[in-house]
Amino acid sequence: MAVITMLAKYKTTVKEPGIPGVLKMMEDVFSFTPNDPRSAKKLKVDFRNIKGHKFSKDGSKQALLNLTQVPEKGGGYIFEFNNFADRNVCRDFVGKVLGKFQTLTSEQTDQPSSGKVTASEKATASIEQLSTKEMEHRMKLLREDSELQKLHKELVFGNVLTESEFWATRKALLDDDSDRTLKQRTGFKSAMLADIRPSTDGQTNKVTFSLTPEIIHQIFSEKPAVHRAFLNFVPVKMTEKDFWTKYCRAEYLHRTKNSVAAAAEAAEDEELAVFLKHDDILANEARRKIRRVDPTVDMVADFSDDYIHLSVHGILQDGNKETIDSENDFAKRTLAHDVNRHATVVLEGRALDIELRDTRAVAEALARSKEASSVDTSDENANLGRQERAVRMTELEDLQASHSLPYASLCIKDPREYFDFQQVNALKALGGTGSRTIDYSLNTEDAYYYLLQQISEVKLQGVHNPVVQSDTALKVLTGLTQQISSTRYNLGKNPQESVLDRFPKRTKDEIMLHWMSIQELLRHFWSSYPITTAYLYNKVLRLKSAMADIYQKLKAIKDVQSDFRHQISLLIQPMLQSLDAAFAHYDAEEHKHSTKNGARLNGFVQ
Amino acid sequence: MNSASAPSKLYSNDVSLLVVLLDANPFFWASSAAASGDSASQHHPTAVLSFSKLLNHVIPFLSSLLLLNQFNQVVLITTGVNSCSYIYDSEEGGAESATGKVPAACSKILLRLEEFLTKDRLLGKDPDKAVASSVSSLLSGSLSLALCCILNSSTKCFFFHSYAGMVDLLALDFGVDIQRIFRSGTRHPQPRGSPDGPEQYVAVMNAIFTAQRSMIPIDSCVMGVQHSAFLQQASYITGGVYLKPQHLDGLFQYLSSVFATDLQSRSFLQLPRPAGVDFRAS
């Protein structure tokens, strides 16, 4: 919404009756026109003069909105609306506009380099509605990415691009951020907190259990019988509180290892009995799993998984081995049972992703997810699949033909050495043909005699003084230096290193920055063609001047005399070429445009 | 410096032990002298050096090394056609007589060289005439001699210092071993095939790997027209410097600026590297 028009009454103080009229709000100004054309209270105020806004609470006697001015002017404009809805609409609008202005001004104060009053131009030129949230978002992006910030600073505050244009190409960045929620599914805690430990009050006989939705979720996952009971009983038979009380009582009875008392209470209260009995759902599941065991030794399950029915296994939680009264059939839940069940549930992962608000919702959601998963498993197909696998696994390897596939042996060598070697060979081939092969056949005697003669010559003459002539020495030294500093030996030796890394840091940063700026500018430049409006034309002019600046800078870098001159010029060359292409296009378009205009002028007949 | 065989020892001082292998293959030197006398336009004017000039560069180089550090040690070994021998060891004491224009050490070297050559000639069983290109000098033998010397002397030196009650006993790096091999240009140019005798390949490679294990860099300075594959490999594998000087008049300058660097300095100095290494075995 760019403009809001609302009926309102304007007043300077709260007590006044107010002058009825029409309040019109736009992005940068708001105006008030009284209904009575003779009244002198016409207003047209720029939002920049408005510092803040105050409003009366919803539900109070008057729906007021007070736009306070900057402290120099003092006072404010109070508008009374017919109802709160209208007032709220206006209030939100004002809030947005003020927010936009505030962030713009804060940006301005941060960048003193832009001395020009560009805020007004920007504010009038930008037609979009910016919420404060979006502004914050952009600021955050700029803060996090220093390169982006540099680019932004250079282009937007150098008055080359406007904010909107800058961010237009970066919608992906803005959108991505907003819904970057944590998609990670957290699982259950591995600590067994479903084993609720009550806090006992030493003085009274009360035992307090504390249950959170998290704990409840875990209980439902681990004990499907309790889950079923919850779905059945609550809220039909008992309230949730009662349900949990009974559950906690059952747990407490377990803990106290008083099986007689447990039997007694269970006889009284059939719901309680549910909690104390074996979890039959679990038992069914376990039996089903065992039936599905793969004969080809698939370690998914074997009969010891049915730990519920193993009575001699594990440490009994109450330490003594009493025989179970068969008719009561209470669960002798051993520690092993609990631990195993908990571990299974934890490893299965959290079935629900929703927030845990209340128990009912949790229970239902869990039931739904269980249904979904049980529908998938169809026994028929599973059986077939298992049979097939069994057949496959039981093949006898001795009776098979040999599977000797041809393979190429792995050879890990540094390929660069090969290329160096080839280069040497090439050099040799070139150099070898230069010199003639003259073989001398010598007399052994003569050879030795020659050497001995040489030695005696040295003896006679002594060592030369100076050993080396100074100019020869200089030649040698310069040759060595050139050879050492030649980059030929460094290129391509280290795969992790790039040419850019060998430059001094400042040069590298400069080149990178220029590169990014050029990318951005060229993108905008080429997207502005064909030029249809004056806006685009101005934009192109601005871009062109910025590009010319960078062009000069690049040329300056290229001309700097340094060791890396060659590499730098190789890097900069494509940048200059792209800029040249842009300039050429611009000139061509200008030329076309001017010839067209010229023709029109000439042929213009009024 | 190739990282393939960079020494991992940390050198705490710049003491060095240098073993120089000098190639005294008479056939090569005589033939190169003949060639240079023959047609100077064919060969590069500075491609060959006469043996006396070589000695004029090498001997001052050895002396300058001894000047660099009080504890530096220099050993000179010659490689002949039939034998190799120690020529000079700077640790040796003994009466040194200065003869005429030549300083004492120098005269000792020259004397020993003469003796060596005469002995070498006597050892030779080859026919009287030989084609210069087919006679190779015993690189492997001299490498082995050098390695023995170094590995032997490192222990010796340690004991020496502990006996003399040096304060800094922990300077085990004293035996920091630099071995430089002088290999004067070997064969006459052959388009295919290394100037080194192929029959020595195994022995030379053994020596090279020994040096690598003991972290002894082998530097090579090659004269002559062709590169030497053996020495290239040696320098590459052991992390030494391989150089074929362009201006042989300034050989001393090459020696003192490149080959006189001790191992500690090599960690921060940049030394010339060859463009590629020839790994062929021929």
Automatic annotation (TrEMBL), chain B:
GO terms for biological process: nucleotide-excision repair; regulation of DNA-templated transcription. Component of the general transcription and DNA repair factor IIH (TFIIH) core complex, which is involved in general and transcription-coupled nucleotide excision repair (NER) of damaged DNA and, when complexed to CAK, in RNA transcription by RNA polymerase II. In NER, TFIIH acts by opening DNA around the lesion to allow the excision of the damaged oligonucleotide and its replacement by a new DNA fragment. In transcription, TFIIH has an essential role in transcription initiation. It is found in: Nucleus. GO terms for cellular component: transcription factor TFIIH core complex; transcription factor TFIIH holo complex. InterPro entries: TFIIH_Tfb4/GTF2H3, vWFA_dom_sf. Belongs to the TFB4 family. Keywords: DNA damage, DNA repair, Metal-binding, Nucleus, Transcription, Transcription regulation, Zinc, Zinc-finger. Component of the 7-subunit TFIIH core complex composed of XPB, XPD, TFB1/GTF2H1, GTF2H2/P44, TFB4/GTF2H3, TFB2/GTF2H4 and TFB5/GTF2H5, which is active in NER. The core complex associates with the 3-subunit CDK-activating kinase (CAK) module composed of CYCH1/cyclin H1, CDKD and MAT1/At4g30820 to form the 10-subunit holoenzyme (holo-TFIIH) active in transcription. This is General transcription and DNA repair factor IIH subunit TFB4. Its main location: nucleus. One of its GO terms (molecular function) is zinc ion binding. It comes from Zingiber officinale.
